[in-house]
Amino acid sequence: MLKTREYRRQQENQRRIELSRVLVISEKPNAAKRIAEALDDHSGSHEVKSGKASYYECKCRGDSLTVVYALGHLYELRQTERGWTYPRLDTEWAPKYEVERNAGNTKPVIELIRRLSVDADKFVVATDYDIEGSLIGYLIVKHVCGIDPSRAQRMAFSSLTKPELQRAYETLMPTLDFPMIKSGCVRHEVDWLYGINLTRALTLAIKNATGLFRIVSTGRVQGPTLAFVAERDQQINLFVPIPFWTLSTTAVLDGQQISLEYSKRRIETKTQADILVKSLLGRTGRVSSITSRTFSQNPPPPFNLSDLQAEAYRHFELRPSRTLQIAQGLYLDALITYPRTNSQKVPSALNIRQTLEDIGKMSKYIPLVGRLLQRKSLVPVQGEMEDPAHPAILPTGNLPTKKLAANEEKVYDLVVRRFLALFGEPAVKQVVRADIRCDGHLFYLRSLGVLEAGWTSFYGPYAITNEKAMPPLSEGDLIDLTSVHADEKYTPPPARFNPSSLLKLLEKENLGTKSTRAGIIDSINSRGYTLGGRFELSALGYAAFETLQLHVPDMLSADMTRRLELKMEEIQQGVGQRESVLSDAKTELAKLLQDFKSQEEDIGQALAKGLRRYWREEQEIGPCPSCADGTLVVVYSPKTRKRFVGCSNYKRGTCNVTFPLPQKGKLMPLDRICPHCGHRMIKIQSGKRAWETCLNWTKCPGRQQDLELLEKRRTDRETKDQSYGGDEL
């Protein structure tokens, strides 16, 4: 018996010598599963449950691999000193569950990785190959595994396809990407320092000056972004429209009505316009010349993240943050390459023909792919922008294994068609212009036609051609002007920002990163600085901008933020020093906070006024439909704490109109009336979901669907609550 045990022990030791135990650290559960499946030599990868966490095991090239996953960041920064005050300039990394209340799910993951790391001989970081992913992996290796990070190796990949993951493991980087890690580390530290200290400064200024407590947040990039929106808002509000007139002219040619453009786009006075109408109405014009111009239009470059976000907003009205979220999901499903990229390049190593053949297995793309595969040579259009870590956003060729949600399908189709369009010929278009002269006045008739569709046939519905046909015309044809009108118009104000245009501005100004800009834009709205989904400043937004601009303009300075961005980019390039950048940032911040402190009373009073106006904006719905002078406001019952809408004249005893409200979600009044019952429309925003209804939603004949939806949500919530109660018992 003893000999048998000794033999088994020797065998086990021998196996341990032969098999290196490799701990592979991925970023998400989906990624861990795909990595294990891709690297396993014998299709024997499997998940191992361990309490509330899990990991994957597989065998690869004689090694025993344990693939664990993070849940994004497992460690966050926190202050080393106690107290909710400012300045706080010293920080430390701590487990996320100790820093954030709702991060309890990270604790079992951290404990599992720590336990599995004890027996590991080798450590491989396989998180996303970017600043955030590199920092996530580094912090796990250092704080959870407890080893010298220089011992760890790095997998670098741009998609979660099997060939790409196998290539990445076969060509492991010998060390972690420390310049990227240092850049990510200092970026988190600087953002924490500015965000925490400036937010506390604003919040405590209001509290110390008035006793009101409301967290008013800002940050290193959020401040300049608010300034951009505020300056545009001021331009719009101060804009004085100038009237002008245009001629609207209809003519008849061979019994067909056509619209003509007058050569002068703007007529300065109504008198001039009226004279023109009288002199031209009923006259006959003559086609004096017909000219044409042919031009070609090349395919657009491959998608980088900002281009994809702009195109998704243009076609689907998806906010940039939502597009990034969808693209990240498609990446984790191995359907597209890594989305957080600046690149507009297709890598030379890509097997284009194989990728097209794989895409062609989907029925909707068969005709398009078939045309491309007939060619001997397949050379894609390349853009100018590059990214050292990743190529452009491209389809991997993997087929969806499940039905995609509606918005996922839209974004995926957009990426696939953009890829196909890269191999298309230039589109050839023709512009034709006919000049019509009438009593010394010149009119135009223009058309735009597509002679050769080229790449637009692959891009499909996303290629906007704006075709306009030209009626049959010849020089010398006579055209009767049957209708001439003078239309009064006004010069338009500057356009308000939308999520896409604001994103482009932040990119142009080099503020934030490709990964953070969308979230910064959302924060401007979610923190009450703008109204609803529009980039129109609220009372709080105006108060914050005007107060900070007057007292501490550096909090809104794009130049200061841009200088910091450049320094952090230098660290990533291996030129700058983290300690120097962090020290300079602390010095600038301390000076700014000292300046703020000396004016805290004035700043607090000004912000409090804006905050009170903002609260009124949030509470007021509109005029009361029952009495003549009342205002509908959101009221909270002191007994039940439930909210409802009532008339402001209720306390006077002159009006008792009330409307029930859904009890959860942010309420926003809309500038529309319900077509069914005539009451004011409202929008309820709950998390990422939003729905519109009217104040009369419980009785409105056209709102039965809202009641059914609310009932379903209530039932689902009760079922969920009951299941939780059963678990506790």
Can you offer a commentary on this structure?
There is one protein chain. The protein is an alpha+beta fold. Helix content is 42%, strand content 21%. The chain is built from 22 helices and 21 strands. Strand 15 and strand 16 form a beta hairpin. Helix 7 runs antiparallel to helix 19, helix 10 packs antiparallel against helix 16 and helix 16 packs across helix 17. It starts with a helix and ends with a helix.
Gist?
The protein is built from 22 helices and 21 strands. It is an alpha+beta fold and 729 residues long.
Q: Flag low-confidence runs.
A: 720-729
Q: Main sheet?
A: 6 strands, mixed
Count of DSSP strands: 21
Shape: globular
Quickly name the level 1 CATH class of the largest domain: Alpha Beta
Mean pLDDT across residues: 90
Helix count, DSSP H or I runs of 4 or more residues: 22
| Straight-line N-to-C gap | 48 Å
Structural class: alpha+beta
SSE inventory with pairings:
Blueprint: H1 2-18, E1 21-26, H2 29-39, E2 46-50, E3 53-60, E4 63-69, E5 75-79, E6 91-95, H3 96-99, H4 106-117, E7 122-125, H5 131-144, E8 153-154, H6 162-170, H7 178-210, H8 222-238, E9 243-253, E10 256-262, H9 270-280, E11 284-297, H10 305-316, H11 320-332, H12 352-359, H13 366-373, H14 406-421, E12 427-438, E13 441-452, H15 456-459, E14 478-490, H16 499-508, H17 517-526, H18 539-551, H19 558-572, H20 578-598, H21 600-619, E15 620-623, E16 631-636, E17 643-647, E18 658-660, E19 666-673, E20 680-686, E21 689-694, H22 704-728
Parallel strand pairs: 1-4, 1-7, 7-8
Antiparallel strand pairs: 2-3, 3-4, 5-6, 9-10, 9-14, 10-13, 11-12, 11-14, 12-13, 15-16, 16-17, 17-18, 19-20, 20-21
